[in-house]
Write a structure and sequence with these properties.
Length: about 290
């Protein structure tokens, strides 16, 4: 029998990486949906006439081939260091986190998370904290390594009330199966221009006066004119106005509710992109965008 062409060379250990990976950083969209995630369960258990087209589509195909199935917005940065090692930085860990691990960590072969950044303290950004021990990295002795979590003091106060067992770092009372997460809580200053470093990568919360952005990721929560004056979310027309002002090289949209049918809106955005000269598309769950970091 011929030797397996992709087997490690003789003498290689199980830890050898074969074939050697191409060193490259990327962004993995773990979720591109709104706080309630899609399909919106209300559209399915109390269906209107006619039924909600997007939420019906959200059930018509398996989620891995269904861009209308959108979990809580969350991004995983796969940061490739110069020596070829990868660090994984997670932005937000919402209430659909377990499903995102099962679906996209497995698919993209992500073994663990090295640090976490929380953008705010809502359920769609923090409720998956209960599962953080599942993705904690381990050292060579298979012991759990402490994971840094970056957040504001405001978010920390809320999490201390809601997850006392995570702040005290002991298993939740009566839960024999769960292990205590080992967390290094790191308070970031409420100054949008003050950078901080997570897993070797510098983050500037809101860079001002930067050059042209390679990639802008922005929310579009509702379609034209559907948003209201009291909403803190952007409608698609407000999002496109912002993109015209900022003029990135490329933009991807996230946070879409069930007003957005993926193919239909992307077709419209393709025409907009040609007329404005800025490529803009809706992102979808599982999308991996390669990028220089
Ligand atoms: Zn719906
Ligand atoms: Zn939120």
């Amino acid at each position: 029998m011929e030797p397996d062409p992709v087997a490690p060379p003789a003498g290689g250990t199980a830890a050898s990486v074969w074939p050697p990976p191409q060193p490259s950083s990327s962004l993995i969209f773990l979720g591109t949906g709104c706080s309630g995630a899609l399909p919106d369960t209300r559209c399915l258990i109390r269906a209107s006439t006619p039924p909600c087209a997007v939420c019906s589509l959200g059930l018509s195909l398996p989620p891995e081939r269904n861009p209308n199935y959108r979990l809580n917005t969350s991004l995983l940065i796969d940061y490739c260091h110069d020596d070829g090692t990868h660090k994984y930085i997670l932005i937000d860990i919402g209430k659909t986190f377990r499903e995102q691990v099962l679906r996209w960590f497995v698919h993209h072969k992500v073994p663990s998370v090295d640090s976490i950044i929380l953008t705010h303290e809502h359920a769609d950004a923090v409720l998956g904290l209960d599962e953080v021990w599942v993705v904690q990295p381990r050292n060579y002795r298979n012991e759990i390594k402490q994971i840094p979590i970056f957040l504001t003091q405001f978010a920390m106060d809320s999490i201390t009330r809601r997850f006392p067992y995570l702040v005290e770092q002991k298993p939740e009372d009566g839960d024999e199966d769960a292990q205590a997460a080992k967390i290094d809580w790191k308070i970031i200053e409420e100054d949008v221009e003050k950078p901080f470093v997570a897993s070797g990568l510098e983050f500037v919360p809101l860079p001002t006066g930067a050059g042209q952005l390679d990639l802008l990721i922005l929310e579009a929560n509702a379609l034209h004119g559907v948003g209201d004056a009291f909403s803190t979310h952007l409608t698609l027309s407000e999002t496109l106005d912002a993109i015209k002002r900022i003029r990135p090289k490329r933009a991807l949209l996230i946070g879409m509710r069930h007003f957005f049918e993926h193919q239909r809106e992307n077709q419209m955005l393709a025409e907009w992109s040609i007329s404005e000269g800025i490529p803009v598309q809706l992102a979808h769950d599982g999308l991996r965008a390669f990028i220089d970091l």
